[in-house]
Fold this protein.
Amino acid sequence: MRLTKRTSVMLALFMVVSVSYAIDFDNLMLSGNKYYEQGEFELAIINYEKVVSAEGSSATLFYNLGCAYFNQKEYGQAILNFEKAGELAPRDPDILHNLEFSKLFLKDRFELPEAMPLVAWFTSFRQSLALSELRFIEIVLFILLVISVLLYRWQRNKSAGNAMLVMVYMTGILFVLSAGWLWDRVLSSEEQHVVLLVNEANISSAPIPGSSTLFVIHEGTTAEILDATDAWYEIRLPDGKTGWIMHEAVGIY
Amino acid sequence: MRKIGKMGRISKYLLLPLILLISSIYAQPRISASIDAKQVLVQDSFSWTLSVEGSEDMPQVHLPEIKKVARLSGPMQSSNYTYVNGKMSSKKTLTYTFVALEPGKVTIPPVQVILGKKSYLTKALNFVIVAAKGKTGAASQTVFLRAIPSKTKIYIGEPITVRYKLFTKVGVYNYQVSKLPDAVGFWAEEVPQASQPRLVSEVVNGVRYNTAVLKTVLYYPTRSGELIIDPLKTELEIEVKSKQNNRRAFNDPFFNDPFFGGNRKATRDFLSNQVKISVTSLPDPRPANFSGAVGKFQIRASLDTNAVFANDAVGLSITLKGTGNFKSLKLPVPNLPDDIDVFKPERSETIKIKGKTHSGYKKSTYLLVPREPGNVVIDPIEFTYFDLQAKKYITKSSGWIKLSVYDAEGTQPVVTSGYSREEVALMQEDIRYIKSPDTHEINRQSEIFGFLYWGIHIIGIMVLIGGFGLEYRSQQLHGNANLRRSIKAMGKARKKLKQAERLAEDSPELRAILQQCIAGFIGARLDAAENALNTSELIEVLHKKGVAEDIIEETDQFLEGMTLDRFAPGAVQRSASEWIQVTRDLLQRLGRVL
């Protein structure tokens, strides 16, 4: 009796805490949007960033923050936040549009060979589901697989048993595919990227201050992280060039 | 003599300015104000004159608002120098012309006159405005001029038209409007119209008049408040009836012929009414880049090419199209990056009065010379105006303007590549607007593979394993009924024991049950139909199985004893509880070996 009472109190407390967080986030978002509507982008950014620093996360949040940064002409921050929003909602047309649109403002442009249509389609298909969506699909398929295996095993009727076997194979194949896709997505999301947030940065040949500059990149340019030290990232640009850059200059997504 | 005369003239010329100077320094200026009539008829004009003597400075006057009259024109300035008896005197006059509007006593208050650095006050002047009666009144009803505003309550910058309409019962031969009326706080433009106004018949208060719009003027208010458009003055040449009075020299029917002036022409001045317009200022808050445009506008900006070599010129044209207070508008200036040189823009405009407002376009073309290769983005050019229908500020934007600047040396851009077709299409668009969040949409970032994820998988796998285990057992049992019987044998035997314990001491069933318990157990375990076996058969089966002799012996004794006890009670001296105990022990021992 005593234990249940304590548990219920704790549960209630937990709920209050979680709800109060939610209210806080919602209000910050709404006031951020209000400032945005009034053209006070700086204040909007402050509000959105408060949510981000409290570890709030949603596609809308990052999208709105990206829009506000865009209006402040901070294209690096805009791209960083649109990329983050895109990871959470990969098929949202507004996010894709604004990301592509922001990239028009970059000084660095890379001439890349055009990918084959099939490859391009596959690449985009691979990215078309968010991690959370894939996780959900994988769980659902797993549960379906377990249920269909159990049903098949307990089925005495022969024709129904055959039907159940087909079901087992189908759910099994789909489950393996979804699990594989999920695994691929996990691996690819662990591959981190940087966005340059400062106007211009030198890319060094080694993670040592004073090492020679290989080339210069400009705000908003994105690159893959290959390696990292305490203060430096080794990055690879879309055109394949690699070099080292200081942590302060970039944002990670 | 001649020489002296010449000298005299020269000295005169020299002296004149000197005297003027001295007189202006030493003489006390005489200031007086006057009006040219003590009695003025309504609709008649009169003038107020300020004259200053003995000062070189032009007087500056700030006339206060005077009730019942309206300013028609002025100030008219005139200077007059007289040279009398070697003495020079100067006289300057300022004349304002007013029109009397309402009958009553009018006082022109003391007016402050500033002369140089000093200020003076004139004395107050009184006069009377009397209502026009008789001749004048009749005339004013025969012919009158009305100012008809299209609206009386407007916003700053909202255009109104005032039509000056002539109502007449008599013929009008000619008219002349020397100038547009004064309208302080307005910017006015006359709407062009056909040279000869069209006559339209109209009935006013039951009297038929011929009417004609003499003038239409477009007014744009430039400040808020109750503003007044002064009356318009026209000079009309109208038909007046000749007085059949005794003044006529020849009172002869012959001369009464219209040809000789039964009606004659006369030139008269007519004044329209004053127009009062209340002008409201535009609502606050005003957008930062609002510059006073009121109406409906569109802004466009375009480059004549999107790709250019460094140091080559490219034209950027900004066009503002629409309707509204165009004339006072300035085109927005593009905000250009530093590495582009800009030359003074070429401006052109086509603005016409259309309906009650101006319509057309203004265009300025800038010549840009980018100096550095790269991609240049020019901020959207924005134009904010106040929409009169929506009653709010609207900002129109031209969209982003993008320019690829190539290195002049070669065709390849240095740092950058050109834009693809998709990107060029994208450039025509703008950043999309923010989204409003769903309630509780934002969650704290959580582990992707948290407790729930792994929990579901582990539970699933456990369910599968458990299911398979159960299924394996049930399949084993199902496939081999004897095995199942064998597994279940001990349970069954125990059940029988329990059943026996519950029976009464002398129950005849008790011993049968106990016997069945052991026999059934052995039968089930040793794959034999329990009931089909008698004692000797059971012992044989046990022997075949290779069970230890002592247990066989014990079983044999038990079964024999039990049979004896069942069918010859009293032969074996064992109570029911003793039998149960023995059965339990035997069952235990059998269970171990079978």
Residues 96 and 178 of chain A are 24 Å apart (CA to CA).
